[in-house]
Amino acid sequence: MATMRDVAERANVSIATVSFVINGTKRVAPETRARIEAAIEELDYRRNVVARALASSRTRILALLHPDLEARPNATVIQFVMSAAHGARERGYDLVLWPVNDDEQMSHLLAGGLVDGALLMEVQIRDSRVDRLVASRVPFALIGRTENDDLPFVDIDFATTIDLAVGHLRSFGHQRIALVAQRTKAGNEPGRIMRAKAAYLDAMAALGRPPAVVAVEGTSAGGREAAHKLHDDFPDATAVILVNEGASAGLVKGLRALGRTVPDDLSIISASTTRELGEMIEPSLTVMAAPAPQLGRLAADALIDQLEGVQDTPPHILIPCTLVPGQSVGPAPDRSSTSRPEPKRERNAQTDS
Amino acid sequence: MATMRDVAERANVSIATVSFVINGTKRVAPETRARIEAAIEELDYRRNVVARALASSRTRILALLHPDLEARPNATVIQFVMSAAHGARERGYDLVLWPVNDDEQMSHLLAGGLVDGALLMEVQIRDSRVDRLVASRVPFALIGRTENDDLPFVDIDFATTIDLAVGHLRSFGHQRIALVAQRTKAGNEPGRIMRAKAAYLDAMAALGRPPAVVAVEGTSAGGREAAHKLHDDFPDATAVILVNEGASAGLVKGLRALGRTVPDDLSIISASTTRELGEMIEPSLTVMAAPAPQLGRLAADALIDQLEGVQDTPPHILIPCTLVPGQSVGPAPDRSSTSRPEPKRERNAQTDS
DNA sequence: CTGAAAGCGCTTACAG
DNA sequence: CTGAAAGCGCTTACAG
């Protein structure tokens, strides 16, 4: 592999001049530049990224840190990764997905000088990784938020998202609206769950309705469990908002197994997911599509602005999900006469064509 | 950030000795070692990965190269990434997902000296990225195969997978079996599609049945299109094998819209996907689960063996998918009397509880 | 068992 | 406009 020295020799210049041409850091006489460029071409020279990094203490590599991804369909995460990678690339940075499991690994990575900055996903309300990040003095931006709001972040605006979902349901006459959240290990709650829950509780309070919250795993089995819990504990709910992508399909299946039809008996909105997921389910789910493509890019931009000393980036960016109507929301059934719906025992009919 | 020099000074040794202790590359007197370890601890020293890489021309970083991921649920890819990352970590390597769009980017990465080796996913039958990889002289392993078989690879054994699927369907009496493949840009065919198709054609020939192949996009819309094509072009098919994860849900929805019940009218197996995807669909799909967890790990091992000069790794590893029965395969309906099934016009019934 | 020193391939003041 | 040289923080023969 050709080095800068080889290029310099072939072009009859010093390696400093080669460096200036490659980086555009200084004026170089046109004919000198031409000679150097020719030499680079002829030798198929490519700058050694590691040496450059050591000399300049910059690598132009950004890490997107993510805890172990589960094996469930996770289109949102992929959208984050890809849009952040594109945004970074446009500004001359590489962005890589770095699966990092424990704090020690993270310190190793951050202290190693290998990345110029980091993006952190799946931020918890209390997140020791954030502390590590702060301690490491590596510039970073969060995708999500901790409980304290003075770190730079981009996040889904869950409060607005839930308000939009509740508003949509109310426009169909729904008053008794349940929330299906994601069950989390104790003390390890993602901010999105907490914030969505808080927004939901506010909305219910404003409506003068008691809240109905169910938390289950983000799996099909979790979704079926949610169907049973809703059926048993909140039989008068006419609509449900999911903040649990992975449980969406299972919830519909579970309801159907219980003889409850979507949306005739129960309307459903799945918040913070993708329209693709909505389309997979029958009936097609009305979803609040996560702004992952925008947020990934904005996160990359925010981080790079920080690295390059750009001052005018807002430290916090919030974007709500977008309503994508499907076929899972319908008029609220009239429950005024019966306190509990009569579970239909016959096989239920299809609701879409 | 403390450097090795700081540690050496504090421990009253040379930096060489510090290096020996950190890397375990040479014997060091116990008390010297203890002094050095104490100094490391006190200074919270962490080796600079970039400097180490430059000096040793090894980074212990592996890149998993993936072309732009689409926004569809792609659990299999995530499984590959995570299992490969775990396998690498156990052997002291970091593995990152590097979204790489064009050949130029890839050359930049490979020539930069930043990664010791590469794993390439979504390998096409003819793949210019593979040529780049070979030219770069960076060690690599493929996940998938090109048309020539002498490069190291791990891959799903599609021939066996299709045979198992056909065998399963035959045990239910099916003879007319269609294949739903993935539509690809011309000249850009993933090996898996081609190999699955070939295995299917062989199986049909052995059965003495004409093949019925439909190719659609890997989306819900693609799946619905497949339902129509099957209904119009191959109305006597009693079973279908999908090699198109993204179209699975849409196919079931499309069939139902056409009044065809799964599995009463048509049995379905979705090959090379995850059991999680199968569970999301109603009825739960019988799937051939991709051996992504094993293959990711094996790919990482194969690559690292190569890097470390381990000779006894088989250059090619093939593992078939595993049958995970769901509720989408049933006895073949008797079609002997009618050449074309009477499309049911009434709403269809559920098939699972 | 330990150290002095060269070298990995660049960048970047500094001098001219 | 161009170059000589120091330095980034390590590893690794080589010598003792």
UniProtKB/TrEMBL annotation, chains A, B:
Keyword Transcription regulation: yes
HTH lacI-type domain: residues covered: 2-56
Keywords: DNA-binding, Repressor, Transcription, Transcription regulation
MF (Gene Ontology): DNA-binding transcription factor activity; transcription cis-regulatory region binding
Basic and acidic residues: compositionally biased ranges: 341-353
InterPro entries membership: HTH_LacI, LacI/GalR-like_sensor, Lambda_DNA-bd_dom_sf, Peripla_BP_I
Spans annotated as Disordered: 324-353
Pfam families in UniProt: LacI (PF00356), Peripla_BP_3 (PF13377)
Protein name, UniProt field: LacI family transcriptional regulator
